[in-house]
Design a protein that fits this description.
Penicillin binding protein transpeptidase fold; three-stranded mixed β-sheet; 47% helix; 2 domains
Amino acid sequence: MSNDEILRSNRHRKGGGGQPPKPKKKKRLSRKRVFWTLFFTTALAIFCALGGYLFITINGEKLLNENQGKLTVNPTTKIYDRNANLMGELSLEKSEPVNSDQIPKIIKEAFVATEDRRFYEHSGVDLWSIGRAAVKDVVARSMVEGGSTITQQLAKNIFLTRDKTFFRKATEMSIAMALERHRSKDDIITMYLNRINFGGTIYGIKAASEHYFGQSDLSKLKLWQIATLAAMPKGPSRYNPLRNPELSKERRAVVLQLMNEQGYITQEEMNQAKDINYNYKPPAKQQKYQAFIDYAIDEAQDKFGLSEDDLNIGGYKIYTTMDKDAQQTVENAFADGDNFEKSVDSEPVQGSMVIINQENGSIVALLGGRNYEKKGYSRITNSRRSPGSSIKPIVSYAPAIESGQFSMNSQISNAKQCFGDYCPTNLHGYSSSISMTEALTKSENIPAVWL
């Protein structure tokens, strides 16, 4: 049989002289099929939700009993210099807990208005806030907002874990719901105010009042002071009135606005409290290398996304580039009033200093001002003033020497002149030329700009 005959025979056996096979009929979805699919999907979702709720409820009760009354079980966070020598620890500063009747109603209202306006309506978890936070997290593709209620924040402090994971969040919700079943709202807000972080290692409303206002009697706090404290949980370091008085004042205005909108204070009370400037200076507490420790803590927060609260109770070990001899030398120099000009008023002439290892850019020593206080105002990180003549060696003389065309003995222009529209002047007069050494010693402007 030829090949053509074989092919024709095969086609005949497959269905008829080359006729293509009939297409299969598509199965149509019936209403009954759709109904049962939706029914089982809904039933499964309800079953999972009930199971999850049951797990959260039972787990919350168990965790609440296990962690009742705890704040931290971790060792203190320790900070080391560049030779791994211990230079400081973050030991917590807490006052004795205050009872509910010792906390004025307006303080509780300020924190509720700012942190959890539906506090008296929900049962520990605010689904509306969680939904809003989840949308923001999805948009940002990271956990940018927690949606936590006051009860959840308290639960987090009890449970202690610092990682932002789904499991931690579910556990936090478990404990929050258990707390709401066993404690009154007033008990919860009181425990919250006794445990919350108020910047640095300050914990509790009374400790905060004593530290920032020198006031141990909470009933004597004024509205602007209460709003200043209520502004801090959002960012204890950022809105610290000692370190960032302007940012603290801005955030205080937001708190007062919220209190007014929710009917806790009048428009007149809000406006009066908005305008007051913070000027309290706490008593000095001696701690070696405090300025460097504060700087290291700030960098740890920025670099690793940790909160101040995380660092305080997380038991971390922080290794820095500080040289203790250089740091002590800077602190001794700033403590000597003879190294500074005499002040024309009661405020001392100020300064700041940073020593950097030019080989790798690491910070060896720093100080943000004279009489620097813990978590105080730093002219290194908070000030935005011109560097003045201190910039001349960096932008003019060092690059000139590095180019190989000049040395410290080179003669450079010192004649009165303009550079475009900029016409600098000299304090000590002018000449056709001046040595680089003399120009740097006298801090003349013309040679530096000319270079």
